């Protein structure tokens, strides 16, 4: 029988390092968090070769005395837990394993000086062995340098990625922590090149737009919501401002960057009927909740959390996001694309002596009219022009008085979407507003209007009506999946899905939502079970019902290719202005675009 023995200290630290230090970005995260917890107002990060060769973090925090530096390099030593109430943690780091773990797999140099000390102190730990302990000259604060990470652990070193990939991970860590603390200034340098610099005491919305996407300043909405003791702030992008991957979703809980499945599921649910399935929102959300309501100690790197009341948190996030997006009205992230605008550019005029080139613009395209078409006679064209001149050059008294309807048209110009002037290809409405030209996709716009009408009329409740199956279906699942479904029977019944437990590894389906029609019952229940395992609640079924609502709206809306009267076009514009989220259709595409007056003037060389 093998003998039980106590592991040596250096091996214990290396094992702990496997949990805390996965890659250079992990070490960087722990060190920067310590700097923030030390009260720093400015943090400077320098890395070389993606952090594989060197990581250096300098801060102006409170600093440490020599005895505190020695204690900080011991396992489970921390200043961030004044008592044993771990559920009251308010700092970013508290486990007391980061520095000794890093020092066991790299050359770690700590230099620190308190603000009331005349000199600093320096200690160097080379892969678990103290190699230097002496005074040091530095300004108040702390400087920590990590070199040759995993240099003596080749089994770990060979699993690291390329310097470019490791640098991207380090940059993401600094970006997230800089967003979490807009009161702190950050500087990031990679291989001697400054790649990020933000000043302290910056507004949250401005900091987020600077670090995530500058377009958020124009194409985002500010989130400010409270419910009970919870508070949510941040910036959320309009549905039309989206990405193909979810790497621009930044989530924070009590100032701590997290990657939580429940929060990600709540974001997806909030955007469910405004984005296509393969598109993702761009946002940064900051949730503040009493510390006793969230467990931040469920992951060694503290990137995952567990909520005491997950249903409350998810409902709060979904409600706050939807309310903010509804407040955006008909706003849409819809600047005309550069390639589309390029088609409108007038090419330079050739010299008079040269033969006229074939122009490729939309307004001067060469073409020969079909022979069957009778060209207008010059005399008729001249008569028409003389008639126009006579009208515009006539004395004011001789001009025709405007009709009564013209006054209404002038008033409509002051509406956000203006007054309809015509239709292109029986698909796009062209309207004139006081600040430019508006082009509306009539099908996409009406699709959103119909969906919002269905919701306002209680269509979602009507959809939840069950359609009983003639013969109940038995769906076999794993026992854990059946347990999760059984816990949510009441919620699923509210959506119209009636289930019963049918033994340890099966569920009996008695009814399905009527609007799902002849759906695959087995696939539906399995999808719901998978979603429960992934998000902790039946978000997927709700999304399926939202998708059905969107499909109904699509089939009930004005189709492309249908000719509309001016009155119908104006009615559509006015309803768009009254309807929330009318700036995008149910699939996240814009419903209208606008060409400002200055853009039109540029097309004709006036500016």
Automatic annotation (TrEMBL):
This protein is involved in the repair of mismatches in DNA. It is required for dam-dependent methyl-directed DNA mismatch repair. May act as a 'molecular matchmaker', a protein that promotes the formation of a stable complex between two or more DNA-binding proteins in an ATP-dependent manner without itself being part of a final effector complex. Belongs to the DNA mismatch repair MutL/HexB family. It comes from the Bacteria. The keyword Nuclease applies. This is DNA mismatch repair protein MutL. Residues 208-326 form the DNA mismatch repair protein S5 domain. GO terms for molecular function: endonuclease activity. Residues 420-564 form the MutL C-terminal dimerisation domain. Gene3D superfamilies: 3.30.230.10, Histidine kinase-like ATPase, C-terminal domain (3.30.565.10), MutL, C-terminal domain, dimerisation subdomain (3.30.1540.20), MutL, C-terminal domain, regulatory subdomain (3.30.1370.100). The keyword DNA repair applies. NCBIfam families: mutl, PRK00095.2-4. SUPFAM superfamilies: ATPase domain of HSP90 chaperone/DNA topoisomerase II/histidine kinase, DNA mismatch repair protein MutL, Ribosomal protein S5 domain 2-like. Keywords: DNA damage, DNA repair, Endonuclease, Hydrolase, Nuclease.
């Amino acid at each position: 029988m093998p003998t039980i023995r106590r592991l040596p200290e250096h091996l214990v630290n290396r094992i702990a390092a496997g949990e805390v230090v996965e890659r250079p970005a992990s070490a960087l995260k722990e060190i920067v968090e310590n700097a923030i917890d030390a009260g720093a107002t400015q943090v400077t990060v320098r890395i070389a070769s993606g952090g594989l060769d060197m990581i250096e973090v300098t801060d102006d925090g409170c600093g440490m005395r020599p005895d505190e530096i020695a204690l900080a390099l011991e396992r489970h030593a921390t200043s961030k837990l004044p008592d044993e109430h771990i559920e009251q943690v308010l700092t970013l780091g508290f486990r007391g394993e980061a520095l000794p773990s890093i020092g066991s797999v790299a050359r770690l140099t700590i230099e620190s000086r308190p603000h009331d000390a005349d000199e600093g102190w320096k200690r160097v730990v080379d892969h678990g062995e103290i190699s230097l302990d002496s005074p040091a000259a530095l300004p108040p604060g702390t400087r920590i340098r990590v070199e040759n990470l995993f240099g003596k652990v080749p089994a770990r070193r060979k699993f690291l990625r390329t310097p470019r990939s490791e640098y991207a991970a380090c940059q993401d860590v600094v970006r997230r922590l800089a967003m979490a603390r807009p009161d702190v200034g950050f500087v990031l340098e990679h291989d001697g090149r400054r790649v990020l610099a933000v000043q302290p005491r910056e507004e949250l919305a401005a900091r987020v737009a600077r670090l995530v996407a500058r377009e958020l300043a124009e194409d985002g909405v500010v989130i400010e919501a409270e419910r009970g003791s919870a508070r949510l702030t941040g910036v959320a992008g309009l549905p039309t401002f989206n990405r193909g991957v979810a790497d621009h979703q930044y989530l924070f809980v009590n100032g701590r960057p997290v990657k939580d499945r429940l929060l990600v599921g709540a974001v997806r649910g909030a955007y469910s009927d405004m984005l296509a399935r393969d598109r993702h929102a761009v946002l940064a959300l900051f949730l503040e909740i009493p510390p006793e309501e969230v467990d931040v100690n469920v992951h060694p790197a503290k990137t995952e959390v567990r909520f005491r009341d997950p249903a409350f948190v998810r409902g709060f996030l979904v409600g706050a996001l939807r309310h903010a997006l509804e407040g955006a009205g008909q706003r849409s992230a819809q600047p005309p694309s550069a390639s589309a605008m390029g088609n409108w550019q007038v090419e330079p005029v050739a010299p008079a002596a040269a033969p006229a080139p074939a122009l490729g613009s939309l307004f001067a395209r060469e073409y020969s009219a079909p022979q069957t078409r009778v060209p207008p006679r010059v005399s008729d064209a001249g008569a028409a022009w003389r008639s126009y001149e006579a009208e515009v050059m006539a004395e004011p008294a001789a001009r025709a008085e405007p009709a009564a309807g013209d006054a209404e048209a002038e008033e409509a110009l002051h509406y956000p979407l203006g007054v309809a002037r015509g239709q292109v290809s029986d698909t796009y409405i062209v309207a004139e507003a006081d600040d430019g030209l508006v082009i509306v996709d009539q099908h996409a716009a009406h699709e959103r209007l119909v969906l919002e009408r269905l919701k306002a009329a209680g269509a979602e409740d009507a959809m939840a009506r069950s359609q009983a199956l003639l013969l109940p279906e038995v769906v076999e699942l794993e026992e854990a999946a059946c347990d999760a479904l059984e816990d949510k029977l009441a919620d699923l019944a509210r959506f119209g899905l009636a289930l019963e437990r049918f033994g340890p590894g099966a569920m009996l389906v008695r009814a399905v939502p009527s609007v799902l029609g002849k759906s695959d019952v087995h696939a539906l229940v399995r999808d719901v079970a998978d979603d429960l395992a992934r998000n902790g609640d039946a978000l997927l079924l709700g999304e399926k019902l939202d998708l059905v609502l969107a499909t109904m709206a699509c089939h009930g809306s004005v189709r492309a290719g249908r000719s509309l009267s001016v009155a119908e076009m104006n009615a559509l514009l006015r309803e768009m202005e009254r309807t929330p989220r009318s700036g995008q259709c149910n699939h996240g595409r814009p419903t209208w675009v606008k060409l400002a007056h200055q853009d039109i003037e540029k097309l004709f060389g006036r500016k």
